[in-house]
Amino acid sequence: MARKVKRNIATVSLFTMDNWLKICIVVVFAVATTGNEEATPAKLLFSKQILNKYLVEGMDIVIKYSLFNVGGTAALDVQVADNTFGPQDFEVVGGQLKVTIDRIPPGSNATHVVVIRPSKYGYFNFTAAEVSYLPSEDAAEALVGLSSEPGQGAIVPFKEYDRKFSPHLLDWLSFAVMSMPSLVLPYALWYSSKTKYEAILTQKKDK
Amino acid sequence: MSCKFLIAFSLAVCLSVVSASSCSNPKLSSTSFTTQDGTILTNIAYVSQFKLSCDGEPADIPLYAEVGGKPLSVVKSKETNEYVVSWLEETKKAPRGNFEIKVYDDEGYAAVRKAQRNGEDTTTVQPLGVVILNHPGAYNGPWINSELAAVIVAFAVMYYALTTKTKLEA
Description:
The structure holds two protein chains of two kinds.
Chain A: H1 2-38, E1 44-50, E2 55-56, E3 61-69, E4 75-81, E5 90-94, E6 98-104, E7 109-118, E8 122-126, E9 130-134, E10 143-146, E11 151-156, H2 158-165, H3 169-206
Parallel strand pairs in A: 2-11
Antiparallel strand pairs in A: 1-3, 3-7, 4-6, 4-9, 5-7, 8-11, 9-10
Chain B: H1 2-20, E1 26-34, E2 43-54, E3 57-58, E4 64-67, E5 70-72, E6 74-77, E7 82-90, E8 97-104, H2 106-118, E9 129-135, H3 146-169
Antiparallel strand pairs in B: 1-2, 2-3, 2-7, 4-5, 4-8, 6-7, 8-9
Subunit structure (chain B): Heterotetramer of TRAP-alpha, TRAP-beta, TRAP-delta and TRAP-gamma.
Pfam families (chain B): TRAP-delta
Signal peptide (chain B): 1-20
Protein backbone atom coordinates (compact mmCIF):
# COMPACT_ATOMS: atom_id res chain seq x y z
CA MET A 1 0.00 0.00 0.00
CA ALA A 2 2.79 2.42 0.94
CA ARG A 3 4.62 1.73 -2.33
CA LYS A 4 1.56 2.48 -4.38
CA VAL A 5 1.10 5.75 -2.58
CA LYS A 6 4.73 6.64 -3.18
CA ARG A 7 4.38 6.02 -6.92
CA ASN A 8 1.25 8.05 -7.08
CA ILE A 9 2.95 10.95 -5.36
CA ALA A 10 5.90 10.69 -7.72
CA THR A 11 3.72 10.68 -10.83
CA VAL A 12 1.54 13.51 -9.55
CA SER A 13 4.54 15.74 -8.79
CA LEU A 14 6.12 15.05 -12.18
CA PHE A 15 2.84 15.83 -13.88
CA THR A 16 2.59 19.21 -12.19
CA MET A 17 6.25 20.00 -12.96
CA ASP A 18 5.70 19.40 -16.62
CA ASN A 19 2.47 21.37 -16.58
CA TRP A 20 4.10 24.15 -14.64
CA LEU A 21 6.75 24.50 -17.33
CA LYS A 22 4.08 24.68 -20.00
CA ILE A 23 2.13 27.25 -18.00
CA CYS A 24 5.30 29.28 -17.59
CA ILE A 25 5.95 29.25 -21.31
CA VAL A 26 2.38 30.31 -22.08
CA VAL A 27 2.48 33.10 -19.51
CA VAL A 28 5.79 34.44 -20.77
CA PHE A 29 4.49 34.40 -24.35
CA ALA A 30 1.28 36.17 -23.35
CA VAL A 31 3.13 38.81 -21.41
CA ALA A 32 5.53 39.31 -24.29
CA THR A 33 2.75 39.80 -26.82
CA THR A 34 0.55 41.99 -24.62
CA GLY A 35 3.58 43.93 -23.54
CA ASN A 36 4.34 44.66 -27.19
CA GLU A 37 0.78 45.89 -27.85
CA GLU A 38 0.89 48.31 -24.95
CA ALA A 39 4.28 49.63 -25.94
CA THR A 40 3.20 50.59 -29.48
CA PRO A 41 4.35 54.16 -29.71
CA ALA A 42 1.93 56.94 -30.52
CA LYS A 43 1.39 57.76 -34.18
CA LEU A 44 -0.62 60.78 -35.22
CA LEU A 45 -2.61 61.18 -38.41
CA PHE A 46 -2.97 64.85 -39.25
CA SER A 47 -5.46 66.33 -41.67
CA LYS A 48 -6.00 69.93 -42.70
CA GLN A 49 -9.25 70.89 -44.39
CA ILE A 50 -10.56 74.13 -45.87
CA LEU A 51 -14.28 74.44 -45.19
CA ASN A 52 -15.21 77.08 -47.76
CA LYS A 53 -17.46 77.09 -50.77
CA TYR A 54 -15.76 80.18 -52.17
CA LEU A 55 -12.50 81.85 -51.25
CA VAL A 56 -13.04 85.58 -51.32
CA GLU A 57 -10.58 88.35 -50.57
CA GLY A 58 -11.38 89.96 -47.24
CA MET A 59 -13.86 87.24 -46.19
CA ASP A 60 -13.36 84.38 -43.74
CA ILE A 61 -11.58 81.14 -44.58
CA VAL A 62 -12.22 78.36 -42.05
CA ILE A 63 -9.44 75.78 -41.62
CA LYS A 64 -9.94 72.62 -39.61
CA TYR A 65 -6.98 70.67 -38.28
CA SER A 66 -7.69 67.14 -36.99
CA LEU A 67 -5.22 64.90 -35.23
CA PHE A 68 -5.98 61.23 -34.65
CA ASN A 69 -3.79 58.95 -32.53
CA VAL A 70 -3.64 55.46 -34.02
CA GLY A 71 -0.89 54.24 -31.72
CA GLY A 72 -1.13 52.41 -28.41
CA THR A 73 0.24 55.12 -26.13
CA ALA A 74 -0.66 58.73 -25.62
CA ALA A 75 1.10 61.33 -27.70
CA LEU A 76 2.65 63.98 -25.50
CA ASP A 77 3.53 67.62 -26.04
CA VAL A 78 1.89 67.82 -29.45
CA GLN A 79 2.92 71.05 -31.13
CA VAL A 80 1.00 72.10 -34.21
CA ALA A 81 2.37 74.94 -36.28
CA ASP A 82 1.01 76.26 -39.56
CA ASN A 83 3.58 78.51 -41.11
CA THR A 84 2.03 78.61 -44.56
CA PHE A 85 -0.09 81.72 -44.02
CA GLY A 86 2.23 84.70 -44.01
CA PRO A 87 1.12 87.80 -42.08
CA GLN A 88 1.39 89.99 -45.22
CA ASP A 89 -1.14 87.88 -47.12
CA PHE A 90 -3.44 86.65 -44.37
CA GLU A 91 -4.90 88.01 -41.18
CA VAL A 92 -5.79 85.61 -38.36
CA VAL A 93 -9.17 86.57 -36.91
CA GLY A 94 -10.01 83.49 -34.82
CA GLY A 95 -7.86 80.83 -33.18
CA GLN A 96 -4.10 80.55 -33.31
CA LEU A 97 -1.79 79.08 -35.95
CA LYS A 98 0.74 77.73 -33.41
CA VAL A 99 -0.78 75.66 -30.65
CA THR A 100 0.21 72.92 -28.21
CA ILE A 101 -1.87 70.00 -27.05
CA ASP A 102 -0.64 68.39 -23.84
CA ARG A 103 -1.83 64.89 -24.46
CA ILE A 104 -3.76 62.94 -27.08
CA PRO A 105 -4.83 59.58 -25.61
CA PRO A 106 -4.56 56.50 -27.84
CA GLY A 107 -7.51 56.03 -30.17
CA SER A 108 -8.84 59.53 -29.69
CA ASN A 109 -8.73 62.68 -31.77
CA ALA A 110 -8.31 66.38 -31.30
CA THR A 111 -9.57 69.13 -33.58
CA HIS A 112 -8.62 72.76 -33.87
CA VAL A 113 -10.23 75.45 -35.98
CA VAL A 114 -8.59 78.62 -37.26
CA VAL A 115 -10.31 81.44 -39.16
CA ILE A 116 -8.21 83.66 -41.42
CA ARG A 117 -8.90 86.43 -43.91
CA PRO A 118 -6.87 86.85 -47.07
CA SER A 119 -5.82 90.37 -47.83
CA LYS A 120 -4.83 89.64 -51.42
CA TYR A 121 -6.53 87.79 -54.25
CA GLY A 122 -5.03 85.29 -56.66
CA TYR A 123 -4.11 81.62 -56.74
CA PHE A 124 -2.85 80.27 -53.45
CA ASN A 125 -1.38 76.85 -52.82
CA PHE A 126 -2.59 75.55 -49.46
CA THR A 127 0.32 73.43 -48.21
CA ALA A 128 0.83 71.25 -45.18
CA ALA A 129 1.06 72.25 -41.55
CA GLU A 130 3.67 70.70 -39.26
CA VAL A 131 3.24 68.72 -36.09
CA SER A 132 5.85 67.49 -33.62
CA TYR A 133 5.09 65.16 -30.74
CA LEU A 134 6.68 62.72 -28.31
CA PRO A 135 5.52 59.18 -29.17
CA SER A 136 5.89 57.96 -25.61
CA GLU A 137 6.82 59.22 -22.18
CA ASP A 138 10.43 58.18 -22.34
CA ALA A 139 11.03 59.10 -25.97
CA ALA A 140 14.27 60.94 -26.54
CA GLU A 141 13.37 62.75 -29.74
CA ALA A 142 10.18 64.29 -30.95
CA LEU A 143 8.60 62.90 -34.12
CA VAL A 144 7.82 65.41 -36.82
CA GLY A 145 4.94 65.00 -39.26
CA LEU A 146 3.09 66.93 -41.93
CA SER A 147 -0.61 67.34 -42.49
CA SER A 148 -2.58 66.66 -45.67
CA GLU A 149 -2.47 69.43 -48.25
CA PRO A 150 -5.76 70.96 -49.39
CA GLY A 151 -4.16 71.97 -52.69
CA GLN A 152 -4.48 75.06 -54.80
CA GLY A 153 -7.37 77.45 -54.46
CA ALA A 154 -8.36 80.66 -56.21
CA ILE A 155 -8.98 83.58 -53.91
CA VAL A 156 -11.49 85.69 -55.82
CA PRO A 157 -11.30 89.49 -55.63
CA PHE A 158 -14.11 90.99 -53.62
CA LYS A 159 -15.53 92.96 -56.57
CA GLU A 160 -16.20 89.80 -58.56
CA TYR A 161 -17.89 88.08 -55.65
CA ASP A 162 -19.99 91.16 -55.00
CA ARG A 163 -21.04 91.38 -58.62
CA LYS A 164 -22.25 87.79 -58.57
CA PHE A 165 -23.80 87.46 -55.16
CA SER A 166 -24.81 90.73 -53.59
CA PRO A 167 -28.50 91.72 -53.71
CA HIS A 168 -27.77 94.89 -55.73
CA LEU A 169 -30.51 96.78 -53.93
CA LEU A 170 -29.21 100.17 -54.99
CA ASP A 171 -29.17 99.05 -58.62
CA TRP A 172 -32.77 97.88 -58.48
CA LEU A 173 -33.86 101.12 -56.82
CA SER A 174 -32.22 103.21 -59.51
CA PHE A 175 -33.86 100.99 -62.17
CA ALA A 176 -37.24 101.61 -60.55
CA VAL A 177 -36.62 105.35 -60.47
CA MET A 178 -35.58 105.37 -64.14
CA SER A 179 -38.59 103.32 -65.25
CA MET A 180 -40.99 105.57 -63.30
CA PRO A 181 -41.38 108.30 -65.97
CA SER A 182 -42.65 105.95 -68.67
CA LEU A 183 -45.24 104.49 -66.28
CA VAL A 184 -46.20 107.41 -64.09
CA LEU A 185 -46.65 110.14 -66.73
CA PRO A 186 -49.37 108.39 -68.82
CA TYR A 187 -51.07 107.23 -65.61
CA ALA A 188 -51.11 110.78 -64.26
CA LEU A 189 -52.53 112.14 -67.49
CA TRP A 190 -55.26 109.48 -67.60
CA TYR A 191 -56.10 109.99 -63.95
CA SER A 192 -56.41 113.77 -64.23
CA SER A 193 -58.68 113.49 -67.30
CA LYS A 194 -60.70 110.72 -65.61
CA THR A 195 -61.40 112.79 -62.51
CA LYS A 196 -62.30 115.81 -64.66
CA TYR A 197 -64.70 113.68 -66.73
CA GLU A 198 -66.30 112.18 -63.65
CA ALA A 199 -66.69 115.60 -62.08
CA ILE A 200 -68.48 116.86 -65.21
CA LEU A 201 -70.66 113.73 -65.24
CA THR A 202 -71.78 114.16 -61.64
CA GLN A 203 -72.49 117.85 -62.31
CA LYS A 204 -74.71 116.92 -65.26
CA LYS A 205 -76.51 114.30 -63.14
CA ASP A 206 -77.11 116.81 -60.41
CA LYS A 207 -78.53 119.24 -62.92
CA MET B 1 14.47 60.52 13.09
CA SER B 2 15.68 60.61 9.50
CA CYS B 3 12.99 58.05 8.58
CA LYS B 4 10.27 60.30 9.96
CA PHE B 5 11.78 63.28 8.19
CA LEU B 6 11.82 61.35 4.94
CA ILE B 7 8.16 60.42 5.31
CA ALA B 8 7.20 64.00 6.14
CA PHE B 9 9.20 65.31 3.19
CA SER B 10 7.65 62.83 0.76
CA LEU B 11 4.19 63.71 2.05
CA ALA B 12 4.88 67.38 1.54
CA VAL B 13 6.09 66.71 -2.00
CA CYS B 14 2.98 64.65 -2.73
CA LEU B 15 0.74 67.40 -1.44
CA SER B 16 2.48 70.06 -3.48
CA VAL B 17 2.24 67.93 -6.63
CA VAL B 18 -1.49 67.39 -6.05
CA SER B 19 -2.18 71.07 -5.42
CA ALA B 20 -0.19 72.08 -8.50
CA SER B 21 -2.66 70.37 -10.82
CA SER B 22 -5.71 72.00 -9.25
CA CYS B 23 -6.53 75.66 -9.29
CA SER B 24 -7.49 77.92 -6.43
CA ASN B 25 -9.31 81.17 -7.11
CA PRO B 26 -9.65 80.51 -10.81
CA LYS B 27 -10.36 83.55 -12.98
CA LEU B 28 -11.27 83.28 -16.61
CA SER B 29 -11.12 86.10 -19.10
CA SER B 30 -12.14 85.31 -22.65
CA THR B 31 -12.55 86.63 -26.17
CA SER B 32 -14.62 84.83 -28.72
CA PHE B 33 -15.11 84.79 -32.44
CA THR B 34 -17.70 83.21 -34.68
CA THR B 35 -17.85 83.36 -38.46
CA GLN B 36 -20.85 85.33 -39.56
CA ASP B 37 -21.13 84.87 -43.29
CA GLY B 38 -22.87 81.63 -44.11
CA THR B 39 -23.00 82.12 -47.86
CA ILE B 40 -19.41 81.10 -48.61
CA LEU B 41 -18.79 78.60 -45.81
CA THR B 42 -19.89 75.01 -45.37
CA ASN B 43 -19.42 75.11 -41.60
CA ILE B 44 -19.64 77.88 -39.06
CA ALA B 45 -16.66 78.09 -36.72
CA TYR B 46 -17.01 78.96 -33.05
CA VAL B 47 -13.71 79.91 -31.43
CA SER B 48 -13.15 81.03 -27.87
CA GLN B 49 -9.79 82.08 -26.48
CA PHE B 50 -9.46 82.41 -22.73
CA LYS B 51 -6.83 83.03 -20.10
CA LEU B 52 -6.93 81.25 -16.78
CA SER B 53 -5.26 82.72 -13.73
CA CYS B 54 -4.95 80.84 -10.44
CA ASP B 55 -4.40 83.11 -7.47
CA GLY B 56 -3.54 85.96 -9.75
CA GLU B 57 -0.88 84.09 -11.73
CA PRO B 58 -1.35 82.65 -15.20
CA ALA B 59 -1.90 78.89 -15.04
CA ASP B 60 -0.33 76.16 -17.11
CA ILE B 61 -2.44 73.15 -16.09
CA PRO B 62 -4.17 70.83 -18.53
CA LEU B 63 -7.80 71.77 -18.99
CA TYR B 64 -10.86 70.06 -20.43
CA ALA B 65 -13.90 71.74 -21.86
CA GLU B 66 -17.45 70.79 -22.70
CA VAL B 67 -20.25 72.58 -24.46
CA GLY B 68 -23.77 71.20 -24.41
CA GLY B 69 -22.52 67.81 -23.31
CA LYS B 70 -20.05 67.61 -26.17
CA PRO B 71 -16.35 67.35 -25.19
CA LEU B 72 -14.02 69.82 -26.88
CA SER B 73 -10.28 69.77 -27.50
CA VAL B 74 -8.52 72.46 -25.52
CA VAL B 75 -5.29 73.65 -27.08
CA LYS B 76 -2.77 76.04 -25.66
CA SER B 77 -1.02 78.85 -27.42
CA LYS B 78 2.39 79.34 -25.91
CA GLU B 79 2.91 82.70 -27.59
CA THR B 80 -0.07 84.40 -26.02
CA ASN B 81 -0.39 82.07 -23.00
CA GLU B 82 -4.02 81.40 -23.82
CA TYR B 83 -6.23 78.36 -24.10
CA VAL B 84 -8.24 78.02 -27.30
CA VAL B 85 -11.46 76.06 -27.65
CA SER B 86 -13.07 75.63 -31.02
CA TRP B 87 -15.77 73.64 -32.76
CA LEU B 88 -17.75 73.62 -35.99
CA GLU B 89 -21.41 73.36 -36.93
CA GLU B 90 -23.02 73.02 -40.32
CA THR B 91 -24.12 76.36 -41.71
CA LYS B 92 -27.77 75.44 -42.04
CA LYS B 93 -28.01 73.89 -38.57
CA ALA B 94 -25.78 76.34 -36.72
CA PRO B 95 -27.74 77.56 -33.71
CA ARG B 96 -27.42 81.15 -32.60
CA GLY B 97 -27.32 82.64 -29.14
CA ASN B 98 -25.23 82.10 -26.05
CA PHE B 99 -23.18 78.95 -25.60
CA GLU B 100 -21.85 77.96 -22.20
CA ILE B 101 -18.42 76.40 -22.35
CA LYS B 102 -17.69 74.64 -19.08
CA VAL B 103 -14.00 74.43 -18.25
CA TYR B 104 -12.77 71.64 -15.96
CA ASP B 105 -9.42 70.69 -14.53
CA ASP B 106 -8.18 67.11 -14.19
CA GLU B 107 -10.24 66.20 -11.16
CA GLY B 108 -13.34 67.97 -12.34
CA TYR B 109 -13.27 66.24 -15.71
CA ALA B 110 -12.67 62.84 -14.14
CA ALA B 111 -15.73 63.47 -11.97
CA VAL B 112 -17.77 64.40 -15.05
CA ARG B 113 -16.73 61.24 -16.90
CA LYS B 114 -17.58 59.16 -13.86
CA ALA B 115 -20.99 60.78 -13.63
CA GLN B 116 -21.57 60.11 -17.33
CA ARG B 117 -20.60 56.46 -16.95
CA ASN B 118 -22.99 56.02 -14.03
CA GLY B 119 -25.72 57.85 -15.90
CA GLU B 120 -25.91 60.63 -13.30
CA ASP B 121 -26.50 64.27 -13.97
CA THR B 122 -23.24 65.98 -14.88
CA THR B 123 -24.42 69.40 -13.76
CA THR B 124 -23.67 68.45 -10.17
CA VAL B 125 -19.93 68.69 -10.89
CA GLN B 126 -18.76 72.25 -10.39
CA PRO B 127 -16.63 73.43 -13.32
CA LEU B 128 -13.56 75.56 -12.86
CA GLY B 129 -15.31 78.27 -14.81
CA VAL B 130 -17.87 78.92 -17.51
CA VAL B 131 -17.03 80.86 -20.66
CA ILE B 132 -19.95 82.36 -22.56
CA LEU B 133 -19.71 82.55 -26.32
CA ASN B 134 -22.29 84.55 -28.23
CA HIS B 135 -23.10 83.76 -31.83
CA PRO B 136 -25.35 86.45 -33.31
CA GLY B 137 -26.27 84.24 -36.22
CA ALA B 138 -24.74 83.86 -39.63
CA TYR B 139 -25.93 85.74 -42.69
CA ASN B 140 -27.36 83.16 -45.04
CA GLY B 141 -28.40 85.48 -47.83
CA PRO B 142 -31.47 87.72 -48.08
CA TRP B 143 -34.92 86.29 -47.35
CA ILE B 144 -36.19 87.18 -50.82
CA ASN B 145 -33.81 87.59 -53.69
CA SER B 146 -33.86 91.14 -54.95
CA GLU B 147 -34.49 89.88 -58.50
CA LEU B 148 -37.52 87.95 -57.28
CA ALA B 149 -38.81 91.05 -55.48
CA ALA B 150 -38.40 93.11 -58.66
CA VAL B 151 -40.33 90.51 -60.68
CA ILE B 152 -43.14 90.49 -58.12
CA VAL B 153 -43.43 94.30 -58.20
CA ALA B 154 -43.43 94.31 -62.01
CA PHE B 155 -46.19 91.70 -62.13
CA ALA B 156 -48.26 93.66 -59.61
CA VAL B 157 -48.02 96.83 -61.66
CA MET B 158 -48.90 94.98 -64.84
CA TYR B 159 -51.88 93.26 -63.19
CA TYR B 160 -53.24 96.57 -61.96
CA ALA B 161 -52.82 98.19 -65.37
CA LEU B 162 -54.52 95.33 -67.23
CA THR B 163 -57.48 95.08 -64.86
CA THR B 164 -58.07 98.84 -64.99
CA LYS B 165 -57.92 98.75 -68.78
CA THR B 166 -60.46 95.91 -69.03
CA LYS B 167 -62.74 97.73 -66.59
CA LEU B 168 -62.60 100.81 -68.78
CA GLU B 169 -63.25 98.86 -71.97
CA ALA B 170 -66.16 96.94 -70.49
